[in-house]
Amino acid sequence: MKSEKSIYNITKAAIDRLKPNVTDWYFTKLINQDSKKIITFDLIENEIPIIEIADKQSKTLISTRRILEESNSTKTTINFQDIQSYDFGNFKGEIDNPEIKKFRAIDFNNKSQNFQMESGKAAIVIITTLNTLKNLTKPQAIHNQKST
Predict the structure, then answer these.
(1) Which residue of 1, 34, 97, 144 is 20 to 30 Å from 55, comparing CA positions?
(2) pTM, entire model
(3) What single string gives the DSSP state of each residue in 33-95?
(4) Is 121 exposed, middle or buried (0-12, 13-18, 19+ CB in 10 A)?
(5) Residues 6+ apart with CB under 8 A from 26
(6) Rounded to 5 degrees, what are φ and ψ at 75?
(7) Which domains does the chain have, with CATH numbers?
(8) Up-side HSE of residue 16: CA atoms within 13 Å toward CB?
(9) Local confidence band at 148 (pLDDT 50, 70, 90 cut-offs)
(10) What is the mean pLDDT of residues 7-35?
(11) Residue 129: how many CB atoms within 10 A of its CB?
């Protein structure tokens, strides 16, 4: 498996290729690799935060290993290795009027968990980040091996 720093750098490069204009975002911010001090989540050793999505009720963190969310004192988390797919629903919204929407992360047992994301211009960066991290951390293909 790749190192946390390698996963961070590859994901950051994928984000940078999109040339995002972060001033257009209301709820989402990219986190500098060295800014662990501002994160209120308990991170695993060497885990690096990448994106934070926050409104008055909830805070979501996308890191090199997991999606974490705290909403009304309820904490939800899922590891990227456990994610089979996502359902982003109508993530576009109104481009000039972003709002908080929910997306679903579905694990290999078809159990889903909801997390928040910003609609509009920030959505494509969030989706690119989530897909990149899922692909970089996917488990070995033991499910697809044929028995002889």
Answers:
(1) 34
(2) 0.88
(3) TT-GGG--S-PPTT--EEEEEE-SSEEEEEESSEEEEEETTEEEEEEGGGEEEEE--S---BT
(4) buried
(5) 98, 118, 122
(6) -105, 135
(7) 4-136 (2.30.29)
(8) 7
(9) very low
(10) 89
(11) 19
